[in-house]
Specification:
By secondary structure, the chain is of the alpha/beta class. The protein has eleven helices and eight strands. It has two domains: 169 residues, NAD(P)-binding Rossmann-like Domain (Rossmann fold), CATH 3.40.50; 102 residues, 6-phosphogluconate dehydrogenase C-terminal like domain (6-phosphogluconate dehydrogenase C-terminal fold), CATH 1.10.3660.10. Helix 4 runs parallel beside helix 5, helix 7 crosses helix 10 and helix 10 packs antiparallel against helix 11.
């Protein structure tokens, strides 16, 4: 299979490295950075650049760039995409992207499905990409009434070959609602938490808790601004909910109300146990 990858940052670069290390597929890749393209060729992550000439030979195209850039790329290249190809965007929000790309795919006759690999690192770029980033991860797909079972079987086999533990099916609305809580809110909390003046004086006083809370504060502000604003309704709902709970803790501590504080902490522990996970 010929696989085209648009964007060779952490997500697209890891896709390319995983494909080349785990499958026999041919990979064509493109990135705005000439340095990234050189590195990708030199380390064997891509077989050749993705060009106007070979785009039409691609059986699968993975679009791993920011939401608006992904929309723009598909719209500007739709005429060159084979009608037998499958296009999967790997953006972190789905409503705006799927709403824009699905009609283009229908117009030009190629298959399209929204996707979001549930994997990442605090650092981005091709140099942070690895061939095992997706091992054990979940791959979210957003099929609709036009999606046929053969397409899903093809994608299931492909993503399992890359080490994904399995597929999770959702719709764009549900995806964006849950991602606002599981991913976006966590990045905002980490970014806000590290703004305490004590963060600059913490050396010798911090261990795992500080590292866990601040790891994703090393974010790409341009990318995350776009993701946050694309999901503003659900994200602000989660922020408002969190602020309410933080106020409950602050009020109990300020009042030295041990009973109330103990109840809040117990409730959090029990909800974590119910939610599961590490």
């Amino acid at each position: 299979m010929n696989v085209g990858i648009v964007g060779l940052g952490l997500i697209g670069g890891s896709m390319a490295k995983s494909i080349k290390s785990r499958t026999g597929h041919t990979v064509y890749g493109t990135d705005l950075s000439a340095e990234t393209m050189t590195m990708a060729r030199m380390c064997g992550a891509i077989d050749a650049p993705l060009t106007e000439e070979n785009l039409g030979t691609c059986d699968l195209i993975l679009v791993a760039i920011r939401p608006q850039a992904a929309i723009d790329w598909v719209k500007s290249h739709a005429g060159a995409i084979s009608r037998s190809a499958i296009v999967v965007d790997l953006c972190g929000v789905k409503r705006s992207v799927v709403a824009a790309i699905a009609p283009v795919a229908e117009q030009y006759g190629f298959a399209y499905i929204g996707g979001h690999p549930m994997a990442g690192r605090e650092r981005g770029g091709f140099t942070a990409a690895t061939d095992d980033l997706y091992v054990g991860a979940s791959m979210i797909l957003t099929p609709d009434q036009r999606t046929d079972m053969q397409l899903l079987e093809t994608l299931k086999a492909f993503f399992l070959d890359l080490g994904f533990a399995g597929l999770t099916f959702s719709d764009p609305e549900e995806h964006d609602r849950i991602i606002a809580f599981t991913s976006q809110l966590a990045h905002i909390v980490s970014s806000a938490y590290v703004k305490s003046p004590e963060a600059q004086r913490r050396r010798g006083f911090s261990a795992g808790s500080f590292q866990d809370m601040t790891r994703v504060a090393r974010l790409d502000e341009d990318m995350w601004t776009e993701l946050f604003l694309d999901d503003a309704d659900y994200l602000t709902t989660e922020l408002d909910e969190l602020i309410v709970h933080l106020r409950e803790y602050a009020d109990a501590i300020r009042a030295h109300d041990a009973q109330a504080l103990r109840a809040l902490l117990r409730d959090g522990r029990e909800k974590k146990a119910s939610a599961g996970g590490n």
